[in-house]
Design brief:
With 224 residues, this protein is an alpha+beta fold. It is built from four helices and ten strands. It has a domain of 149 residues: 2-Layer Sandwich (Alpha-Beta Plaits), CATH 3.30.70.1560. Strands 2, 4, 7, 8, 9 and 10 form a six-stranded mixed β-sheet that branches. A two-stranded antiparallel sheet has the order 1-3. A two-stranded antiparallel sheet has the order 5-6. Strand 9 and strand 10 form a beta hairpin.
Length: 224
């Protein structure tokens, strides 16, 4: 399924419109067709911008199944940043999980090679380039087999998670989440107001006329 309401050109895949009958809402940060997990929906473009723009550092966390077990060097590269299409990714938080997370079965199931061991990572980042997690793990030699977005952090103390949600289940924000979302929106609105406010400048001082055809030189160098 595509995490959007309009079908992609030339694609026969299901969209959110096949399952959600609510008008004028949009996903805040998409998941690619092969990924699973948490998806926030809203009719508020300002909120979407605030939560998805990496400048505001709202952490998104993923459970990632990869081929082979990453060693310390591979994990450190993921944490400090890898180059994707000429761009260095921002620092990430990465933990190698000791046990497989409790997740529902995937349909269709992932393709695994019986002779190749797999591992699970908990990976958090603040940016969302196209297929970023998959490209990051591939860059350090561990292709992603399964990718599940587990949580989105609203502030330092509150995050929205998959906990308590069944596959395909939808719920409204609770009271704490609504208050956190409103705070996010208020801060963004205040920031936009400050940017739009004209600066007050005092009267310009009269400048003395400069003589023509004379360069402002210093030790023979031209300051053009």
């Amino acid at each position: 399924m595509l995490s959007q309401f309009k079908p992609a050109q030339g694609s026969s895949a299901d969209t959110l419109a096949s399952y959600i009958d609510v008008k004028d809402i949009y996903p805040m940060g998409r998941l690619d067709r092969d990924s699973e997990g948490l998806l926030l929906l809203s009719d508020d473009g300002l909120l979407q911008h605030k939560l998805c723009d990496p400048r505001f550092e709202h952490w998104r966390s993923y459970l990632v199944q990869v081929e082979k077990v990453p060693n310390a060097d591979a994990l450190e590269k993921l944490r400090t940043g890898v180059v994707i299409k000429g761009q260095l990714t921002r620092p990430a938080q990465v933990t190698l999980l000791e046990q497989e997370p409790d997740l529902p079965s995937r349909n269709p199931p992932i393709r695994v090679r019986k002779t190749v061991e797999t591992a699970w990572l908990h990976l958090s980042l603040t940016e969302g380039m196209n297929r970023q997690v998959r490209r990051m793990t591939a860059a350090v030699g561990h292709p992603t087999l399964r990718l599940v977005r587990h949580s989105i952090r609203l502030n330092q103390h509150l995050e929205i998670t998959l906990n308590g949600l069944e596959q395909g289940q939808m719920r409204a924000f609770n009271q704490d989440e609504r208050e956190a979302v409103n705070t996010v929106k208020q801060k963004q609105a205040q920031r936009a107001t400050r940017r739009a406010r004209p600066t007050q400048k005092g009267p310009k001082k009269a400048q003395k006329p400069k003589p023509h055809n004379i360069r402002n030189n210093k030790k023979g160098k031209h300051n053009d």
